[in-house]
Hints:
The chain is an all-alpha fold. It has helices at 6-35, 39-69, 81-103. The chain starts with 5 loop residues before the first helix and ends with a helix.
Amino acid sequence: MPTDPGLQNERTSLAWQRTTLSGLACALIIARLVFGESPALAIMVAAVAIIVAGGLGWLSGLRYKINNATWHTNRLATDGRTVAGLTLLVMIIALGATSYILLG
């Protein structure tokens, strides 16, 4: 059975999209919980999470295009920007959750 070498890249891209969307949903839920205690903080958490998730979505699309273009070369095609963006999104979620606990 022949295999398509582009499928691995596509699956990775879809996994990044799912991770971004679930991180954004989690951040928005945290922002909704924080809203009862501090509306300004909740709006800030939601706004930053939306911006970071948008950037992460853009980076994952860019990562897909770069990997697709350099599939048959022996060099590293992408850097750690996507992972750094995901780390930032998780930190926003953690800070929002921590503020909810401390304010509540």
